[in-house]
Amino acid sequence: MFSYYLKLAFKSIKRNPVLSLLMVTAIALGIGASMTTITVNYLMSADPIPHKSHQLFYVQVDSWDPHNAFSDDSDDNNPPPTQLTWTEATNLMAAKKAPKQTAMAKSGGIIEPKGLDSKPFEASIRLTFADFFSMFDVPFLYGNSWDQQSDDNRDLVVVLSKNINDKVFGGENSIGKDFVMAGKHFRVVGVMDNWQPVPKFYDILNGAFDEPEEVYMPFYLKEELELPNWGNTNCWKSPEGEGFKAFLRSECINFQMWVELPDLKAKADYLAFLNNYVAEQKSLGRFPRPLNNRLSDVMTWLDEQKVVEQDARLMLWLSFMFLLVCLLNTIGLLLAKFTGKAAEIGLRRAVGATKAELFKQHIIEAGCIGLLGGIAGLGLAVLGLQGIKSLYGDYVNNLSSLDGTMVVVALLLAVVSSVLAGLYPTWRACNIAPASQLKSQ
To answer: DSSP characters for 362-418?
Structure first.
């Protein structure tokens, strides 16, 4: 019977093309608006590394001004700084209290490609440790990461992004080759495959939806090569002295740190280590504020830093309200359509059709209208996402595409919405008295 009712539904839609087009358009507009905002919110709030996000923890210690708490956009009244000083980053790494750990920072330098026709260009750098790549599941096209010995020896080795490898080495396997960056010769030990975590959870402070860095090198080369600070840098007091070394030894924060801890006991042990470390630093005259150390897993960290802005959530609710208005219009149109079929419904009742059968028939028709509206709405959603991309540029490139999950959600939302919208008109249609319709004919 389902296939029969499906055939009747499409015949009914063709019989009243203008009315049917109005209903499909109303649903398409509601689905297009809602799916545009749903997709953006979905991508912004998705777990970027779901199989281990509960094992990766962002490290915070409160080394800030004794008279004023660190201020950011969080709802916390007493937030610790969102980054670490060079002193903390290097001391915590040297302690080696986590099974896997990495401090990191953002920088940049000039690459000088070989060849007379190639012009030097600037590239972004991620200063980090060897554990970075395994902690964050970085895929490799060629080679692998450097080892811990290269970290300690401050070897001039790098891992390149796929784009930079294409640009400098023409996409070839460049393992073992060298190139000049920041005035030094670096040896390539690995080339990453395409990798774009959304959001860029390992460093949301410098652009949660920015592209990953182009060149990765050992962290201590920051000091060795005096590489510049990129990204957010905050200080609560001026460095004691002049020059690069003075900045590194200052209370300025520009560094991040993550640790991978397998279970709750490991987390408790590491937090105890942090507390003991701060107590030791207090005895040296540092850390004047009350104890306020934190370990935040990936999703907690994203939530604390408001990766999904309140404006985006508000737009989501507004789009649902617009969808509701579209469905109210659809209810009125369905009511007019089904009322116009009163004679047909009365005849079917007279020859033995039950209310249940009539209900199924018209609910299936409402669902078909919703499906058509959903398909059209997907097109409008794609246009909406392209509009967002053209408005905000590369910043939202990774937030403006529909994946398979969102396509299924859109179609289900359209069908379910139209079925709900069709409940009242269908109930009214099923309660038409057959005798009155037969007399009128």
So the answer is: HHHHHHHHHHHHHHHHHHHHHHHHHHHHHHHGGGGGGGS---HHHHHHHHHHHHHHH
pLDDT tens, position by position, 158-178: 999 999 999 999 999 999 999
DSSP per residue over 268-312, as a string? HHHHHHHHHHHHHHHHTT---SPP--EEEEHHHHHHHTTSS-HHH
Residue 67 CA to chain centroid, in angstroms? 36
Q: Render pLDDT for 289-328 as a digit per residue (tens, 0 to 9).
A: 999 999 999 999 988 888 766 556 666 777 778 888 888 8
Give CA–CA dist 428/83, Å, rounded: 63
Measure the CA–CA gap between 1 and 3, rounded to whole angstroms: 5
Can you read off the two tokens belonging to residue 266?
């490991």
Residues in the chain, total? 441
Q: What is the pLDDT of residues 45-96, one digit of tens each?
A: 678 899 999 999 999 999 998 888 887 555 566 789 999 999 999 999 999 9
- Say if CB 174 and CB 219 are below 8 A apart: no
Do the Cβ atoms of 370 and 417 come closer than 8 Å? yes
Question: Which residue is listed with tokens 């450097």?
Answer: 146
Nearest one of 148, 152, 156, 134 to 217, comparing CA atoms? 156
User: Which amino acid appears at position 9 of this protein?
Assistant: A
Distance CA 151, CA 184 (A): 17
Structure tokens at 267: 């987390």
| Residue 96 burial (CB count, 10 A) | 9
Tell me how crowded residue 235 is: count the other CB atoms within 10 A of its CB. Answer: 14
Q: Is the pLDDT of residue 437 over 50?
A: no
- Count Cα atoms within 13 angstroms, Cβ side, for 188: 26
Q: Would you call 24 helix, strand, or coil by DSSP?
A: helix
CA distance readout (Å), 219 to 129, 175, 269: 6, 20, 25
Q: pTM of the full predicted structure?
A: 0.73
Q: How far apart are CA 370 and CA 362, in angstroms?
A: 12
User: Is the sign of the CA dihedral 72, 74, 76, 77 positive or negative?
Assistant: positive
